[in-house]
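Justification of computing resources. Each target in the renewal requires a structure prediction run like the one illustrated here; the chain below, 188 residues long, is used simply to show the kind of job we budget for.
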Amino acid sequence: MILHGVTATPKDYRGFGLGKFLTAAVERGAPPFVLAGADGGVLYWEPDPAGGDDPRKMMTDEMPRWLAARGFDARRVAGWGWSMGGYGVLRLGEVRPGWLRAVAAFSPDVTHSASVANDDGVYRTTPLGVWCGRSDPLYDDVRAFVSQLPRRPQVLSYGDGAHTRAYWDSVTPSAFRFLGAELGKAAS
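Resulting structure tokens:
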């Protein structure tokens, strides 16, 4: 599942070239998987405290039914997101332990909530990848978050780049290899 950042929506995904990244990953040997995303608004993928939208419920209840109705295996789900969506996949991994087979977070906005990875050991078992550019304004917060995890992420990358689509595009192939490999393990 794709969880977008605050300045994007699923309408942007085609323009971001996500399908081309997925095709390239599969051509390079990653097991095939499906990219599916929904619009989470600007709620940080958390339920609306006023009782309106609940993007998390949409991801965990509605999307699997929608995918299964179209013939996709909705039992093997991984989460990938950037910025606000990076925070969202981390939280989703916590509030639904074991539901996500792997989590890939780009520049996750872990400043949004102190609750991420503080009160459970989900990231002792859930495969995790974290990517953040060293010029990203969230870099120090992401490093502090990673240092508090119960174990080092399977993939941890601090490369040249900022909080930009250009940086995220540069690390998307790595994330898709990671997610494809983890989803491939889940299939066997």
